[in-house]
Amino acid sequence: MKILIIEDDIALRCELKKLLDGAGYTGIILENFENVVENILEQDVDLVLLDIMIPNIQGEYVLKSLRQKSNVPVIMVTSKDSEMDEVMCMSLGADDYITKPYHPTILLLRIEAVLKRAHKNQEIKNTYKGRELIFDKSVISYQGKEVLLSKNELQIFSFLIKHVGKIVKREELMDYLWDTDTFIDDNTLTVNMTRLKKKLEEVGLQDAIETRRGQGYILK
Hints:
This protein is 45% helix and 23% strand. The chain has helices at residues 10-22, 36-43, 59-66, 83-91, 104-125, 151-162, 170-179, 186-201; strands at residues 2-6, 26-29, 47-51, 53-54, 57-58, 74-78, 96-99, 127-128, 131-134, 139-142, 145-148, 167-168, 209-212, 216-219.
């Protein structure tokens, strides 16, 4: 899993990366503090460690702006030991809050707990790169925009999300759709997949689904 480190202290962020890499995660350091929210979204990480005090911008503002576009888990990191700061961060949508100096083991335990909660929530929400599938409306939602999906398109994308990064055979997709009381044959699957790809482009997901000839499809 990828964890983005947003920390202006060079020595500390290098230590954090070493700690995360050693624990089996992939630590990524954000070095450019302009357009922070956009940079977070582009990285497509599983969790963000966000320092409250970063150059030119407050971490609270970054968190507030990020929550308008993404549900990526965020742990706020601060040198302030203030109950008010903790309340404010949690009210803005932080998943956890930790104060410097912290014990490395405690930080790793916090990260593990947040990722477990996020995994459970993701199973319910069906999210991919900040885009959310809303089943009761049959739409994919991103940054306030909603694109209507057909029943087949919704089910196909949901199945691909559950197997993200893995090749899904056409037969697997058709079996899954059959189990959801939807009849679909090979030609219908092709048509639905083409329509789904075009609709994903409307929410900024160009080439998200790759066709692997003779194998199936993969959501990258």
